[in-house]
Amino acid sequence: MIVLDLCCDKDHRFEGWFASAQAFEDQCARELVNCPVCESVQIRRLPSAPYVQTRHGAPDRQPTERTALASTSVAPATPGAAAPVTPETVAAVLQVLRHMARDAENVGERLPEEARRIHYGEAEARNIRGQASADDVEELLEEGIMLVPLPPGEDEVH
Fold it and tell me: N- or C-end of the chain: fewer Cβ atoms within 10 A?
């Protein structure tokens, strides 16, 4: 699942969640993506840099928990995405992501390899989780393979 920064022809900015960059392109071509403000279907992707949170704010060279979502479902553009993010919203999103991670197959340190296999159609599309170094995460993101990094839950802190 990837989150893209989008803009309509009237310069309304919003976010959209998609299974992949190709899924976004396909939906735009079929005019299935529209602006939540004005309903325009003239949508373009804005440049954005992926953000990966590390535990200490410094470059993280140790493997850390990362969850990669390889899903065939596609979520529509998120209406009202420009609203302020509250601590309650962050907590709710983290709870949903942790629930998804618990239900995902744990591939451990094979996460980068398995995420690539899924992305390139060499393995069945499914939700996976595991560990990846910051360098591996950066390489996957550069290849267009989206990961959802999760901070450890209270039961995961040693």
Answer: C
Q: Which helix (H) or strand (E) holds 97?
A: helix 87-103
Q: Tokens standing for 46?
A: 């804005």
* Strand ranges, E, within the chain: 2-8, 13-18, 43-45, 64-68, 77-78, 105-108, 128-132, 148-149
User: pLDDT by residue (tens digit) across 76-113?
Assistant: 444 544 556 788 887 888 788 777 777 889 999 999 99
pLDDT-derived band of residue 158, with 50, 70 and 90 as boundaries?
very low
Selection from 143, 1, 142 nearest residue 70 by Cα: 1
Q: Taking a C-beta distance cutoff of 8 angstroms, is the pair 98, 155 a contact?
A: no
Please answer whether residues 135 and 69 qualify as being in contact, where contact means their C-beta atoms are separated by less than 8 angstroms: no
Q: In what order do the strands lie in the sheet with 64-68?
A: 105-108, 128-132, 64-68, 148-149
What percent helix, strand, coil does the chain show, rounded to 5?
Answer: 30, 20, 50
How confident is the model at residue 34, as a pLDDT? Answer: 93
